[in-house]
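S1.2 Input.
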Amino acid sequence: MLGRPVVEELVRRGHDVRVLTRTPPSDPLPGAEHHEVDLVTGAGLDDALAGVDAVIEAANTPGTGRKATPVLVEGTRRLLQAEARAGVGHHVAISIVGIDAVPFSYYRAKLAQEQLVQEGPVAWSIVRATQFHQLLDWTFASTARAGFVPANGFAMAPVDPRFVARALVDAAQDGPGGRLAPVAGPQVVPVGQLARQWASARRRRRPALPLPLPRRARRALRAGGLVPAGDDVRSGGPSFGDWLRSDAQPRTAAVVAA
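S1.3 Output.
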């Protein structure tokens, strides 16, 4: 969802771009050079990172924290070690708003990944973002197949990955900055309202029912765990409703090095 917008933004700004993924892109972008790597084994990293100034890491894997750990945690460890060997000067990591507040297993893996970056051998920047529009699209489609759409009242501020990509490229250009301002969409909206927008746009008539959640997670979400707080939030991009009307299509990528 994020890798391709990052590549597009880097190319647009005139940077030399290397795309690091396990398999070649099906529709490679002009101006981007592909290198085959595997974060789980470390294969290909040393060659791919030779001469690189900065790495923007957008690696991801579906599933729970246990399934994500080989890529997000151990893979990040291998990547940082390879960056240090190659003399990379800046590691930019994408993370998620609320991972220290909402007790999801995947979020625990993201916290461990953040810690590795902060304690690692390469100067770093971390940008936390809210949930991408494509994630909500996928979630609501999944619940619709189960016969309902969520009616929960906890708030979200979903964001377009293209807006997040601009923040990541800005961070890469500015140099190591530590923990940077969180990035969010332009609106804070209850998830039930977002689900109704989705159902109307996708023409899916389903009853609205509360999404069952563990008690601790439900409490954290009701307290605004997924919405960034403070005056330094970088918000913008199309709203979820605008994104739905534009019929944007999700993309997938892994690691981007520039």
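S1.4 Remarks. Confidence is low (pLDDT under 50) at residues 248-258.
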